[in-house]
Amino acid sequence: MTALQERPEQADRHDRGLSETDTERQSYLRAGHSLGSWFFTRDHKRIAILYLFAITAFFMIGGAAAALMRLDLLTSAGDLLTNEGYNRAFTIHGVIMVWFFLIPSIPNTFGNFLVPLMIGARDLAFPRLNLLSWYIFVLAGGFTLFVLIAGGVDTGWTFYTPLSSMFSHGNVVLAAVAVFIAGFSSILTGLNFIVTVHKLRCPGMTWDRLPLFVWAIYATSLILVLATPVLSITLVLIAAERLFGLGIFDPKLGGDPLLYQHLFWFYSHPAVYIMVLPALGVVSELVAAAARKPVFGYKFVAGSSIAIAVIGFFVWGHHMFVAGQSMYASAVFSFLSLAVAVPSGIKVYNWAATLYKGHISLDPPFLYGMTFIGLFVVGGLTGLMLAMLAVDVHVHDTYFVVAHFHYIMVGGTVSAFFGALHYWWPKIVGRTYPLVWGRLAAIFIFLGFNLTFFPQFLLGYLGMPRRYHVYAPEFQMLHVLSSAGASLLGLAYLMPLVYLTWSMRYGAPAGDNPWDATGLEWTTPSPPPKHNFDEIPVVDRPPYDYEIEMEGEDG
Amino acid sequence: MQKTVSFVFVWFALVLLLAATVTASFMLKGPAGLAVSLGIAFGKSGLIYWHYMHLNEEEGLQRIAALGAGAWLLILFAFVCADYLTR
């Protein structure tokens, strides 16, 4: 009965209940304004904000590297950067965007903020571990910035051997150490989410009532915990070969360079799903909230997240079709890669069915959701083309591949990240932003993105190889289009930074549930109190329990 | 107290197995050396699983879940071998 006595008197704002101070009970943002109250916090919501700052900084650094590349590619001669400089620019762009933006983006910010709120818990299972994972992330980020200052690394984000182990003059070992450290942050976060979802669900929050975002984060966490150690060990093996001459990947010493690709992609292909699964979860939430209908085929959408996580482990060989892998293995990997499209397709069809006859409002979160769906479908279908052995041989290592994965990673994940930001921003800061600016930014992002990356499909199909900055003059037109699109995209990405920051001070108070959505996170005040819920909620209804409006009922 | 003693015993067993690995690497060459090294590594990881990861105190479901990591390692080995053996 202790828990009952700790509940505050609802009418009395000075009754602290579980909180240590009055202000903590009012909002997590008011619970201390000192630096210490942020840097030593164990509150999942504050740690989410710390992550948000860190990954925004890395997004800008990675974006600056991309801007340099696009500027250099305006002319076919490679006037801006040296050959070496160009290699270093795309390597740092890849390393930062993959490990310091995309992988932590949605799980570590919105996952951290929302998972406890969505399942009716007061925090993650291991709050200290959560803070530790942020510090490890920042340490790894510091190493990466040091690599950047020390001159960079030129191997590409994939660190392929034998270039990385024998020939590269860059800071390969340091960069590998940075990624190795970042891996521990991923593992700790994944572990924390798994235990939280298993152990801290509130009464009535059964597995078939979990929000689809939580299902997606759970599936992502499984991959984080199972795949990341393989990457860590692989990077240690590279360092061991470079520093001590151990024969792992060097054929002269009895090693095999292809073994590196097997080990690297055993992690890195599932890592693609680490990046996109949380985005799929976000979009399920955005679609349900926009359509104001229960998600069509809830169990299939939830199960498809787990299916993607599992099947995603069996497809890595499609990155090695032209590397000298056995033809039979390639055929098997090609077939399995096509299979992973099935659960992805289930999601897209079910979103469409959810939207069918929905009461759709064109608010910014939904526009970002639609951006995601459109771009993810193009990225996914071109992924099917690349999974086919014969087609892949033609377009391997061309801009076609670059365009494909940017449609998934940027068009998909980054759009979903912005969708999540616009959907849950009123919950996070307690204030609303100007919707019209949100809509404009979403439209500019969609247009800028397509202008940047669609020409790259054409470039790739015509034979423009990736990772070259000196190219045949007939490709220049498409490169100029792409660079123009990148400028628009860059500006569009900066827009939310301005109006969301503005809204923190000048936005109208949001109220508990500004979108009139279902879900436990909308039952607490905006911003939530430090302990999330004054009373642990009890769930007695299915998820997305929107009242279905019949024809003629609404004006 | 008994738990601490058993941890110390396991630690000694691990050190002995490490010594066995080093000895085997000097005495055995080729596939035999590899087989013995892998066998010892298997034994060592088993001890760590069973005692240090407390699986001896857990119920059936947790033990099966802990084998998940092994199952995933099997996926890696199986598909890498599928490539190497059919090249």
Kindly estimate the percentage of residues of chain A that lie in beta strands according to DSSP.
under 5%
Question: What is the overall shape of chain B?
Answer: flat
Number of domains of chain B: 2
Distance between the termini of chain A: 49 Å
Element order of chain A: H for helix, E for strand:
HHHHHHHHHHHHHHHHHH
Instruction: Point out poorly predicted stretches of chain A.
Output: 1-5
Q: What class would the helix/strand composition of chain B place it in?
A: mainly alpha
What fold name stands as the CATH topology of chain A? Cytochrome C Oxidase, Chain A
The share of residues in helices of chain A is: 55-70%
Strand portion of chain B, in percent? under 5%
Number of domains of chain A: 1
The overall average pLDDT of chain A, rounded, is 93
Q: For the largest interface in this structure, which chains are involved and how many residues does each contribute?
A: A-B, 19 and 13 residues
Q: Could you tell me the mean pLDDT of chain B? A: 90
Radius of gyration of chain A: 24 Å
Helix segment tally of chain A:
18
CATH class of chain A: Mainly Alpha
Number of strands of chain A: 0
Summarize the structure.
The complex is a heterodimer of chains A (555) and B (87). Chain A is mainly α and 555 residues long.
Characterization of this structure:
- The complex is a heterodimer of chains A (555) and B (87).
- Helices cover 66% and strands 0% of the residues of chain A.
- With 555 residues, chain A is mainly α.
- Chain A has a single domain, classed as Cytochrome c oxidase-like, subunit I domain (Cytochrome C Oxidase, Chain A).
- Chain A is globular and about 75 Å long.
- The N terminus of chain A is likely disordered.
- With 87 residues, chain B is mainly α.
- Chain B has two domains: 53 residues; 29 residues.
- Chain B contains three helices and no strands.
- In chain B, α1 packs antiparallel against α2.
- Chain B is flat and about 55 Å long.
- The chains are: A mainly alpha (555), B mainly alpha (87).
- At the A-B interface, α10 and α12 of A face α3 of B.
- Chain A: Belongs to the heme-copper respiratory oxidase family.
